[in-house]
Amino acid sequence: MAFSLSSPCGFRSDEDEEMAVFESTAAEHGGPSRPGLPELSVISPGLDPRPSIIEQKAVKPAAARPGSSDGRVEVFLRIRPLTEAESERGEEQGCVAVQDEENVLLKAPKESHSMRAAERGITQSMHKFSFSKIMGPETTQQQFYECSMKKMVKDVLQGENRLLYTYGVTNSGKTYTIQGSGPEAGLLPRALSSLFSKLQGRLYGAMDMKPIMYQDVRHLSSGEIRMEELRRNSLLKEDDNLPFRRGGNTTVWDSGIGGLSSTSNIATQLEDTDGVCLEPGSLSHSGGDDLEEGVQFSIWVSFFEIYNEFLYDLLDASPSLQPRKRVTLRLGDDKQGNPYVKDLVWIQIRSADEAWRILKAGRRNQSFASTHLNTNSSRSHSIFSIRVLHVNPEADSAKSMHISELSVCDLAGSERCKEQRNGERMKEANNINASLLTLGRCIAALRHNQNNKSRPAQVVPFRDSKLTRVLQGFFCGRGTSSMVVNINPCASIYDETLQALKFSALASQLVHGPSTKTRVAYILSLLREPAAGGNESSVMEDEEEESDVEDGDISMLNTESMLQAIDVLKREVQRQREEKEVLEANVREQVVSEVMEVISEMEAGYSENLEAERALTEERYEDKISTLQKHLKIFYSKELNERDQVIECLSAALDKTQAGEAPPPSLPGEDSIACSGGLLRRSERINKTESGRLQVELDQCRAELLAKTQELTKLKTQLEAPGSTGTLAADRKLEDGQRNLRQLRLDLQRLGADLQSGERACCRNTGGEKLRQALAAADETLAKQDQILLELQNGLMLVKADLRRKAETLAQKQLATPLSAAHPTPGSCNKRGCGTTAPIDTENRPPQKRPFFQSIFPTQTLTRRCNARLAEEANATPYSRILRSRQQSPPRSPAPTPRSLRGKY
Ligand SMILES: Nc1ncnc2c1ncn2[C@@H]1O[C@H](COP(=O)(O)OP(=O)(O)OP(=O)(O)O)[C@@H](O)[C@H]1O
C-alpha cells in the first residue's frame, strides 16, 4: 500500500505522488504497530512507485545503482558523530539506523513532531531512504573523499564540468565535509591536492590566458598580467599576515546591507593548519596518466558567497580590520544565455598550498555567525570554483583551448526561522530557506520534465533565486552534479533531518541532462541527416565516423561543416519553434477548455446554491406570512366583535329613538374612532335638520336686517332735516353704524356661506371632523356678529342720546318762540318743524311705543321694560332669539367650542 509524504522543504509538487514511497511492516523494525497504517516508508531514489518496479529493486544490478551508470544524480549521505555534549544531553536515541551502505532507517523519537503525527495516524514513525552511498559517523575525511570526489577531479581534468554541493540542517557537518577541520582536511583541500598532484609537470605557468564569463577565455596583455600577479600576491601575502593565524580571532566587515557592520567570528577550522594536511599515502595513486597528451593545464580559482540574496566576492581586495563596504556582484548571461557572475575575481594558482591559502583568505570574508545550534554557522551559500584551462601550446589556438570546471558549493543549513531570536539571523534564515526551497522546486520541475517527456514541460524556476541561477548550468547538461546530504543524528532535530532526507530523495531521482558531448553527437547526427537518403555504405561510414567524433568537440569540424551545421541547426530551431507553437496552441486550447469546464461547474454550483437559497427564503417568508395572517385574523376578529357591539348598541338606541323615546345618553367615547362610523351617520342626519333650521333663521335675519337698514336710512333722512351743525357728530356715528351694518351684512353672508359649506359637508358625508370644523367656524362667525351688533347697538345709543339732546334743544327753542311754535307756518312746518316733530315726539314717547328701538336695542331697552319685552318675545326672530340667549347668559359665555357644538347634537 502506498502513501505520500510531504514535499521536502515544505513545497509540494506532483513528485509527491510519483515519489517512490513504499511501506513494509513495522513489526520487523520493532516499531509500535497500529492497525491500518504501516509504520515504515521507503524512499528509494532509484525506484519507481509502481509495484511492478518494486520487484526490480531486489534484482537491481550493481551497475544500476543511483548515481552510477544509469545517469542518475549521485547523492551521498554523511552522518556526523554526536559530540560529547550532545550525548550527555541524551540526543542519542537511535533515530538514525544505517542498514547497509545504501539504506538508512529513520525512526521518529518520542518527542518529535513526526511521532506525534504518526500517533495521530497522519504519517509514519519510520522512514527508509536509499542513497548512492552512506557514510556513517566513523567515516574519515579521506574515505569520504575517495568515494565521492576523487572521480570528479579526474573527470574535470578530462574536460568535464562537475558540481558537488552539500545539503543539510544547520550544524550537520556541511562545512566540515567541504573544508574540514584541523588536520581533517575536507573534500575541497583534498581535491585541490589531488588536482595538483595529477598535474605535476603539466601546469601551464604563464598567466596570459584568463577564464571569463561562463566558460570563455581572454588573452591578457602584459599590463593585465602584471595586475593579475599583484592581486594574486597580495592575497597570498594577506594569508601570511593573518592576525589570527592561530586562535580564531574576530574580523569585522560590512554586510553591505544597511551599511551596518556585522561581526564574523572566523572559524578556526582552516586556521589550525598551515597547509593541506593529508594523510600519508592518500594521493599515492593519483598519477596523471590519464591526462590528454600534449595538453597543459592552467588552474584558476574563484570564491564567492550568496548572502541574503546578494553576491559577494570573497577574494576581492584585501581584508581589513576596519569595517568596509562590500561590493555586490551581479549576474549576467553570455551570448548563449549561460549565466555567470560578472566581475568575479579569478586567481591563478600553481600549487595546492597556494590554493589552500587563497581558500583561507576567502573564508575570512565569509559570513559566519553564532546561532543557537552552531557557534560557527555559515550564514551564506559559498561557492568555490576551480577552472581548468586545457592548453595545447602546439595546436592552433582556436582549437587548442578547452575549459572545464569543478565547483564546490557549501550550502547554508536549513533551519527553523522561529528559533532565531536575532533579527539579522532571522532574515538570514529566511533567505537561506527561500533559496533552498527554490532549489527544491527546480529539482522537482527538472524531474517532472524528465519523467513526463510527452507532457508539456514545466518551467524550471532557476531565476527565482541567485543560488539556482548560478548553478543552472550544472542542471542543464553543461555538467553533472553530486549531492552530499549531511545529517546530525540528534533526536532534537529529527524533524528537520527528515525533511532534508526527503529533499535528497527527490534530488536522487534526477537524471543528468545530456552532456555537451552528446550535443556534439546530436549536431553531427543532424548533419548526417541529409545524407541519410544515400547508399548504405555511406551510412555505415557515417556510423563509424560518429563513434569516432562522439567524444570530440564541435570545434573539431572544419569551416564548411560548421556552416552546414549552422544551417541545419537553424532549420532545426525553426522546426522546434513551430512544434512549440503547435504545442502552445494545444496547451492554450486545453487550458481554455479546462477553464470553461471549471466555469460551467462553478455556474452550476452557483445556480444550485441560488436555488437552495431561494427555496429557503421562500420557506422563511411563507412562515412569516402565515404568522402575520394569524395575527391579523385575531386582530380583525377582535375589531369585528367590538364593532358588532357598537352596532348593537346603536341599533338599540335607534330603535328607542324610533319608538319616540328620548335619545340615549351618549356612549362613552362616542367620538372615538371605533364608534365614529355609526355616530357620524346619526350626527349627519341631525346636522342636516339643524342646518335647515339655521338656514331659515339666517334668511329671517337677513330680512330683518334689511328692514332695519331701511328704517335707519329713513331715520337718517329725518335727522338730516333740521340742518343743525350740532348733528355732525351724530351723522358721523350714523355713518359708522352703517359701516358696521355693512360689515354685519358681509359677516352674515359669510355665515350663510359657512352654513352652506357645513351643509355640503353634511351632504357629502366627508366625515364628522370636517362638519365639526364647519360648525365651529359658523359658531365663531356668530360670535363675531354678536360683537359687531353690540358695537352697532352702542353706536346707536349714542345717536339716540344725541337725538334726545337735539330734541330737547328744539323743545327749548319752541318754548322760547311760542308764537312760531303755536302757529307754525306751513312752510316752516314742512321744512323744519313738521319734518322733525314726528321723530321728536317719537323720541319723547315711552320706548315701548317705538318698535324700531325696541327691536334694535333689546338689551338696554327691554331690561327697563320687562313687560314690553315679554310682549315682544312672541314676535322675536330666531336670530334675535339667539342673540338674546347669548346676551342673557351672565357673564358673557365664551364662544362655543366645536366640542360644545358637537354636544348639542
Ligand atoms: N564527521 C564529523 N566528524 C567530526 N566532527 C564533525 C563532523 N561533522 C561535523 N562535525 C562538527 O560538527 C560541528 C558542526 O559542523 P559544521 O559547522 O560543518 O556544520 P554546518 O552544517 O556547516 O553548519 P551550518 O550550516 O550552520 O554552517 C563542527 O564543530 C564540526 O567540527
From TrEMBL:
Binding residue positions for ATP: 168-175
Compositionally biased tracts (Low complexity): 880-890
Protein name from the UniProt record: Kinesin-like protein
Chain spans, region Disordered: 1-49, 819-852, 873-905
Molecular function GO terms recorded: ATP binding; microtubule binding; plus-end-directed microtubule motor activity
Gene Ontology cellular component list: mitotic spindle; nucleus; spindle microtubule
Classification lineage: Eukaryota, Metazoa, Chordata, Craniata, Vertebrata
Pfam families linked to this entry: Kinesin (PF00225)
UniProt-annotated location(s): Cytoplasm, Cytoskeleton, Spindle
Family: Belongs to the TRAFAC class myosin-kinesin ATPase superfamily. Kinesin family.
Organism: Gymnodraco acuticeps (Antarctic dragonfish)
A GO biological process held by the record: microtubule-based movement
